[in-house]
Design brief:
There is one protein chain. The radius of gyration is 28 Å and the shape is elongated. Helix content is about 10%, strand content about 35%. The protein contains three helices and 34 strands. The chain has about 475 residues and is mainly beta.
Length: about 475
């Protein structure tokens, strides 16, 4: 036992603790969605908190300024353009006011939230993206390239969208079942996926090549996360004894996990969150109230258990505040926004390193990715890789993003990716369009009926004439 004590003692994160916000700093009265899809239904940035809500007909989500805590008015305006349930929402990492959503209606939509939040319901997206033939369960923004969005559908395909032109530009078609999770490495040159077909894959997204594949017979993988620049992946899943477990993998060799670790016998999905700045891993169980946290190392034992934040109330999902939205004066290194469906409550939980000093703690806040993209969409698509543009949080980083989302002008109505026209089997857009189609078809039907009845009359006339000819006395 002595052998690990000294190395354990040296960790500056061994006393990190979770601090729950006061009641008045929570968000109350929110009709959180009852959908059982395994996503977080929540996305947060330094300006806004977005939550998918329960709604009759169509899908909607709330966007609330992050400082507007307390009870939310039941008539608070919503983003409500989708025709089916909203399954995932994600904020653009480089533009605080741009959020993407995907839905059972097969579309991905991009919304621009006005400064200060919504004053009325928003039904018009700045961009509607159609290319999937079935519902879209998952979206992720590229971590370094501006305006690149990945979407994964129940058609087992991942589409890469270039929002500068508003079109899908690549299709990754190597999965044989529903994709459960996507995670990028630091520069976004690789994407790891977990899939219902029990395989873990490392994919080169621009070529669609699968570089590594693990057949997870003993460890059924649910979620995967890249561990920053360590060239390692961490997965959460279920062992063959149906216990929850995590596994650590070398991204260049997925033949065997480096380690497998049993967590407990509960059944809810384990959501992993990794903080590359502190090398801390957080594991939060869906349906239980605990968040365990660990420190990841490059040497054995790789994974050092630190502590566990406990709460009796079950979490449905968790949003995570980006680094530049944290309170560095309180030594806050991570912040969750926990969804309690039963109470309609969202509760911030701050992970804090206890320090007495008043000065900025350089060692727990290294340079971190800020809000400036490292490259444009076309640069990334052409094959360039760049690491994220780093910033210091020392001056209480509040540099506003000067990027503006330009809505592309879309002309052509066929989208050919990998030789397939993705718009061949796309459903109509909106109720209005459905009505337009309906009226168009009715007009066409009327026209055809008219034509038919005209022909009918002509036929009758001809028949009469023929009869008359037959019955007339034969003339010599």
């Amino acid at each position: 036992q002595m052998s690990w004590c000294p190395q354990y003692r040296s960790s500056k994160f061994r006393n990190v603790y979770g601090k729950v916000a006061n009641r008045e700093q929570c968000f109350e009265g929110i009709p959180i969605t009852k959908n059982v899809h395994d996503n977080h239904f929540c996305a947060v940035n330094a300006k806004f908190l977005a939550i998918v809500t329960e709604s009759a007909g169509g899908g909607s989500f709330l966007v609330i300024p992050v400082e507007q805590t307390g009870r939310i008015d039941p008539h608070y305006p919503k983003v409500c353009g989708h025709q089916g349930n909203v399954l995932d929402i994600k904020w653009n990492p480089f533009m605080d006011n741009i959020i993407a959503s995907c839905s059972e209606d097969t579309s991905v939509r991009i919304w621009e939230i006005p400064e200060g939040g919504l004053k009325r319901n928003m039904a018009e997206a700045v961009l509607e993206l159609y290319g999937h033939s079935r519902r879209v369960g998952l979206i992720e923004w590229h971590p370094t390239g501006n305006n690149i969005l990945f979407s994964a559908g129940y058609d087992y395909k991942i589409l890469i969208w270039n929002l500068d032109i508003g079109e899908p530009v690549k299709m990754i078609d190597c999965h044989s079942d529903v994709i459960l999770c996507m995670s990028f490495n630091t520069d976004g040159s690789l994407v790891a996926t977990s899939c219902k077909d029990k395989k873990l894959r490392v994919i080169e997204p621009r070529s669609g090549r699968v570089l590594q594949e693990a057949n997870c017979k003993n460890h059924r993988v649910n979620r995967v996360v890249f561990l920053g620049n360590m060239k390692r992946l961490l997965t959460t899943g279920v062992s063959r004894w149906n216990t929850r477990q995590i596994a650590l993998w070398d991204q260049e060799d997925l033949s065997m996990p480096m380690i497998e670790e049993e967590i407990d016998g509960l059944s809810g999905l384990l959501f992993p969150f990794y903080d590359a700045d502190t090398h801390m891993l957080y594991l939060a169980g869906k349906g239980d109230g605990n968040i365990r946290y660990y420190e990841m190392g490059t040497e054995k034992p790789y994974l050092q258990y630190l502590l566990e934040f406990r709460s009796p109330a079950p979490q449905k999902g968790l949003g995570v505040m980006p680094k530049h939205g944290l309170d560095v004066s309180a030594c806050e290194v991570f912040r969750f926004y926990k969804l309690f469906t039963l109470k309609g409550l969202i509760e911030p939980i701050s992970m804090i390193v206890p320090r007495r000093s008043e000065t900025y703690q350089e060692d727990i806040y290294p340079m971190t990715p800020g809000m400036e993209p490292a490259l444009s969409a076309s640069e990334w698509l052409s094959g360039i890789n760049r690491d994220p543009v780093l910033v210091s949080l020392k001056e209480g980083y509040k540099k506003p993003s000067n990027l503006v989302f330009k809505v592309p002008v879309k002309e052509k109505r066929s989208v050919v990716v990998n030789g397939i026209d993705l718009l061949e089997n796309v459903p109509p857009r909106t109720e209005n369009e459905l009505l337009r189609v309906f009226f168009r078809q009715q007009d066409e039907l009327r026209r055809l009926k008219d034509e038919l009845s005209q022909k009918d009359i002509k036929i009758r006339q001809l028949e009469l004439e023929l009869n008359n000819l037959k019955n007339s006395p034969k003339t010599m």
